[in-house]
Amino acid sequence: MTDQTGSEEATTEPGVPDSGALLGIDFGTKRLGIAICNEEQTLAVPLENYDLSVPHIDGPWLRQTARGYGCVGLVVGLPVHMSGDEGGKAREAREFGKWAAEATGLPVTWWDERFSSATADMHLDETGFTKKRRKARRDKIAAQVILQSFIDSDDRSAPPIAFH
Hints:
5 strands, globular
């Protein structure tokens, strides 16, 4: 199975199932935005933000969260450049995804997260929340945008479209 960037080796087999709840993750070096979708994989909703600590605490938290919601797979946002090329942050997200797959025992795939934070900001700007309240919700809304984009896609293995 390939992931959205077309990389064969990056996706943990057997791949993310086509039905069942998925956990969407907006990866950051300090914090994760977490979203979840329904079992039919039609609607993603923001769940929470999680401040990263150390692997022996983060792993059990992620495993417990995924199990508690009955998740069957993980979708990790992949920060690619506008050209579709991967840089250092994408490598970090891939490393995190591999770690998360091991920590939870669930298959993982990566999904293009370009514009997810900007889309989250756009939605949050419409709420009338204060800047502080918007910032507190941004990462989990970005995770929702990533996961919704994944479940809405007709081709979950398509590489990102290069913008020129």
